[in-house]
Amino acid sequence: MTRRIAFEAIENFRDFGDYAAGSRRLKRGLLYRSANQAEATQADLEAMKALGLSVIVDLRRPNERERSPSRRWEGFAATVIENDMGQEEEDPWHTFIKGSDLSSEAFIGYMVDYYRDAPFVDRHVDLYSRYFHALSETEGPVLIHCAAGKDRTGILAALTHHLAGVSEADIIADFLLTNDLHRFERRAPQFAAHIEEMTGRLPSREAMITAMGVEAHYLETAFAAIHDRHRTLDAYLEEVLGVDAARREAITHRILD
Fold it and tell me: From residue 147, how far is each of 60, 70, 153, 183, 248 by CA, in Å?
């Protein structure tokens, strides 16, 4: 199947269902992931409306939502999960950019550190747990997104896949679908200009491609950190995100054929 769904101005929109999960299979048309919808066109809004979304999980920080507010369609009635935790803290991405040499190596180092910590950040724990609760209690398709739809979103999609019983190979393959070189080439100049505006320095094309992409070892770093603290991903899901046996059963009943 074609997982990427084309929109005029919404990036990285994908269906992350329809994977084998042991003897069963994730449903198609139920689990979506994307970048933000701040630049959505009217046609994009109509296409999103047609998906029948019941829940949207916005994983962005408060300052990101304020800078790029989500556009909604007429009659919008989906439940939105977001939070204002960390509102007084400086965005770690901005802190990194200001002090970085803007090399590819620097971006990779930042991302590895980010993935090591991300599963345990209080605001992520709150949003991830509320997502899994909603997934167990509501009907209809769900969309998860952050700013670019690759890191916070990628971890949450991977955790969903693990819970459902999707193979490690397919979990990684889905994670790596963010690496759309055609999109990167189109967006890199705009991304570089934004960083130049922030820092007065223009990063290279290669560094921008690195910053926009993901690598398998990013997700592997997050999962290894979870194992170090909680022994297994399942223990993390239960002990940190509140996905106990009953909730897990409700989720798998809903998302698996």
Answer: 6, 10, 9, 15, 28
Provide the 8-state DSSP code for 27.
P
Which CATH number goes with the domain that contains 31?
3.90.190.10
Q: For 85, what's the count of Cα atoms within 13 Å in the CB-facing half-sphere?
A: 12
Place of tokens 């491609």: 209
When pLDDT is averaged across residues 7-28 and rounded to a whole number, the result is 97
Q: What is the pLDDT of residues 176-214, one digit of tens each?
A: 999 999 999 999 999 999 999 999 999 999 999 999 999
- 85 occurs within a structural domain: yes
- Rounded to 5 degrees, what are φ and ψ at 148? -105, -10
Report how many domains make up the chain.
1
Best CA proximity match to 97, nearest among 194, 171, 236, 19: 194
Domain around 182: 14-255
Q: 80 lies in a domain?
A: yes
The 10 Å CB-count burial string (b at 16+, else e) for 201-217 is: eebeeebbbbbbbbbee
Whether 9 shows a pLDDT value over 90: the answer reads yes
Does residue 242 fall inside a structural domain? yes
And the tokens for 47?
A: 């296409």
Nearest-angstrom CA–CA distance, 43 and 240: 39
The answer to whether residue 90 sits within a structural domain is yes
